[in-house]
């Protein structure tokens, strides 16, 4: 962190004084909110407006640049793959032969140290199942997931509109600012994400949109409990905050069912990068796919092609 910023934050003065100094230093209001008010943008905006009215807001030096964000993928994550067309017993046998530790179980929400094959009453088709991973981590976790996808392909596993791919990301170290930035980012680019998802995943009973949640409700939340209340404590949203109380994760429920590793990997990296970006700031409303700051050029090309394919 810039030394001038650190000195200001360590001063024994009011929050208003710190906010004024940081704004004069050249930081954005969003950066100041994250540093001083635990993400309360409205408080900073009021101070900023008062400074403008008093005619004292003139930045005295060039804006401060924050360090380049490191998007190295080393996060802990989990996957839930909903599918059909293979008995759980046969799939378990083939997974074990491929070196995957898996157990056939009844319906449950318990985190295991092994992959588990469970039932799911919301799915349609013959021999439906949900394949749930243990906690995976980083690139090694993606490699294990890829091996699982090889087995799914060999067993001719299929998906339909009743199936989804749910991704859990470790959220144990989230600050309140990260939670708010993540919620606002997802809300602000929801239409961008919808465009590279099938119609069945743009708004349904099990992955509702965020459009009914207002920016004010998110910004005014003082705790995760408040933020969950803004989501009506309903886990069936594209962004599920309820999973934190059970698993210490945030769940992304929007992706369509798939057994294709390329689709899984790109989506996992997308949301991992979005979280990393949210640890610093948020993506503003109106941002397009090509302007998303947390994607590489290759990732933008992939999602652009997905968008074009689904718009035909």
Features:
312 residues; Creatine Kinase, Chain A, domain 2; eight-stranded mixed sheet; 13 helices; 43% helix; elongated
Short description, anyone?
By secondary structure, the protein is of the alpha+beta class. The protein is 43% helix and 11% strand. The protein folds into two domains: 3-54, no CATH class; 74-312, 2-Layer Sandwich (Creatine Kinase, Chain A, domain 2).
Structural summary, described in words:
About 3% of the residues have low confidence. The chain starts with a helix and ends with a helix. It folds into 2 domains: 52 residues, no CATH class; 239 residues, 2-Layer Sandwich (Creatine Kinase, Chain A, domain 2), CATH 3.30.590. The chain contains 13 helices and 8 strands. Helix 2 runs antiparallel to helix 3, helix 2 crosses helix 4 and helix 7 crosses helix 12. 43% of the residues lie in helices and 11% in strands. The protein is α+β, with helices and mostly antiparallel strands and 312 residues long. Strands 1, 2, 3, 4, 5, 6, 7 and 8 form an 8-stranded mixed sheet that branches.
CATH topology of the largest domain: Creatine Kinase, Chain A, domain 2
Radius of gyration: 22 Å
- Specify the structural class: alpha+beta
Please give the domain count: 2
Overall pLDDT: 91
